[in-house]
Amino acid sequence: MVEATEDLDRICNTLDKLTLDALSLMEEEIQLKLIMENSMCGGEGHLAKARYIMGQSNVSFLQLPTENSTEFSAVTKVFTNEEDKLYGEKSFELRVVKKDEDETVHDPLKWFGYLVPQNLNYAQNMFRQALQWAIEALNIQTQLRETVRKIEQLKQVKANIVLK
């Protein structure tokens, strides 16, 4: 009976710790999403300023590549770290893709001309930063799911000990 009480105390202490971890992960995720939202809004503001400076027709969807345009690939991609899993958790990261010699790198700002307003550069940087925040929020969300899964498992173990 004493052993069951000690096990129950250990499980309860672990549940408390995991619950606090889950709450701090939730807070961190919310903060990152707010920062990401601010970055996106700032990027949209700079994009609007560039559109105002250059004119509506010079900064529009008409400058974006279409199905008939030459092929291009992304400069950065999201990768999953399968080999670096910690306790079964996946993690994601943004990496710059190395280009082959025959591949050309297309700077999206060139779609709008060669002399673009500085606001277009600012918008690009803010959208890139928002992407970084999104990847970081995704990693925290993955950690949160794993923590919740551990909490559920410990609740089941606790219920089994209490029923005995």
TrEMBL record:
InterPro entries: Vma22/CCDC115. This is Vacuolar ATPase assembly protein VMA22. One of its GO terms (molecular function) is unfolded protein binding. Gene3D superfamilies: 1.10.287.3240. One of its GO terms (biological process) is vacuolar proton-transporting V-type ATPase complex assembly.
